[in-house]
Amino acid sequence: MAVWTDASSLATGVVLESADGDVIEDACWLRHNEATHINMAELDAANRGVNLAVAWGARTIDLRTDSATVHRWLDDAISGRARLRTKAHGELMIRRRVGIICQLVGELRLRLSVTLVRSAENRADALTRVPKDWLRNVSVTRECESPSPGVSAAVVSEPPPLAGAAAGRADSGTADELRAAVCQSHDRAGHPGVRRTLYFARRDVSRDVTRAMARAVVENCDACRSIDPAPVRWRHGSLGVSVPWQRISIDVTHHRGQNYLTVIDCGPSRFCVWRSLRRANANESVGHLEQPFLERGAPEEILTDNDTVFRGRHMAVLAARWRVALRFRAVHEPGGNGVVERCHRTIKVIAARRQCTVAEAVHIYNVTPRDGVTAESAPASGVYQYTVRDCIRSAPSDAAEASERHSPESDDRCRVRPPLSDATEAVGSPPLVSDGARLRVGDRVWVRRRGTRCTDMSRRGTVTGLVSRQVVEVDGVPWHVRNVRHRCDRQDSDGDSDSVDDGDGDSDSVDDGPPLYVDCHWEATEDGADAVVDNGTTVRAVPETLQHATEQTGTEPPAAEPAVAEPPAAEPAQVEPVLLRRSARLQSRMVR
Description:
Elements: E1 2-7, E2 11-17, E3 23-30, H1 38-55, E4 60-65, H2 68-79, H3 91-108, E5 111-116, H4 133-136, H5 140-145, H6 164-188, H7 194-204, H8 211-219, H9 222-226, E6 247-255, E7 258-265, E8 272-277, H10 282-296, E9 301-304, H11 308-311, H12 313-322, E10 325-328, H13 338-354, H14 358-367, H15 396-405, E11 444-447, E12 459-466, E13 471-474, E14 477-480, E15 484-486, E16 516-524, E17 529-532, E18 538-541, H16 543-553, E19 576-580, H17 584-591
Parallel strand pairs: 1-4, 4-5, 6-9, 9-10
Antiparallel strand pairs: 1-2, 2-3, 6-7, 7-8, 11-12, 11-15, 12-13, 13-14, 16-17, 16-19, 17-18
Helix pairs in contact: 1-3, 2-3, 6-7, 6-8, 7-8, 10-12, 13-14
């Protein structure tokens, strides 16, 4: 037996059809609450159709609906292929209705199948619709005074006969009044969206307000357009071209206090060129931009942002001389020049991770295959005909030594630990491992704040506790697992903590770097010695440091004299190398 079901804003309908195509029974129920979501109404129609078929003694039922959502819900629930996926406000009611159908299938041993059909082919669709003329003459005043008057041909009075022009003017006037009433209801409700506007309009104005009318009111509202407007859709394009060096993307960026002019090919090669700028002005930027033109020729188009460097007269003269078209991206939309913006991040990350210069990072980028498989996909292969030799390949001896140093037998901390079973976790206790990186208590990790620069180094830490599968404690501070990564240190610091400063530059904490030997004058005191560096800075050297310096240099530091003793005669100060622990402030002064 085939069961056709359908629902609309007015009613729900069910049609029972035999195997020969004859209609056995049909039924229609008016909806008392039209504000209920249409998917809920379609699910109610499916429940009523199954109950009606069971009453006729059917055990093989083909449920046919034109709702894709209801079809997915019922098909997944009956077949057990997937769980019910919904986050609607009536989620519990939806699960209850789906559970009723599954319970009927299990108890009565029904062979139920769900079929998705088009609305034009649905035989129950005619039961849920009425002519528009029956609803057109329900006035706004009548709806406000006596809500829910009933919808049927017997209740609604027949409109008086009017001439063609007069009838058109009457219908237009009624529609304008209804639209004005919906606008007032939308304003009183605080300018909500389409769904809530439709709810208040049908409750307070008239039940014949359609969704299209509510959507038109919301779309033409200036308050909704000017304050937190709803997102809109647009056609996405592509900045790439199929011909090499046909379009280039340029920009000015900075790295480690130095400005650079960046040029990248928007063609299939993605070859990039970075030029260091002494000053980020128009004259020097345009001069460096012309060098690639002289070497490789001028492109047909230049894509850039709205910087004053590229909006000035120098850029216009260059474009006119080389007959190049200038195209500027939209303001406040970096994605309009996304090719060069993504190149900035790639180059800066390479330079920060490898601790190399920008020129070397650009070289590594240009010789790296884009697909990671063939050398022909490298950006340099799209520009040069010869094989480009890179600086990445190391000597065989160095490679063997590096492979031996990074082998799992030499470093146990780099081994991948097998995941623990979830069955070993007690109920109500913290998890043994966390999701994401599978962290455990005692693991050494990198912690990174969100929103930091791509070149900033993460801070060290140790997992001290597991709050949940999403939150772990690192040095007593709860962090989300997306901000934590495993750390594989090659060497451990003796007695130093794993947590370091965030890199503000004003801290005097001692880092884990190698010892710093400086030539300085030192004077003995009771608790150590004061070392005076060449620039006049006094640094306190602790007794352990002096003892270590004595072992390194083989000289004894001068003994401290009593404060009442007269100072010795002026002699040339002895300069000895003193071992000092490197600090952030001392290192910054030495660099200056």
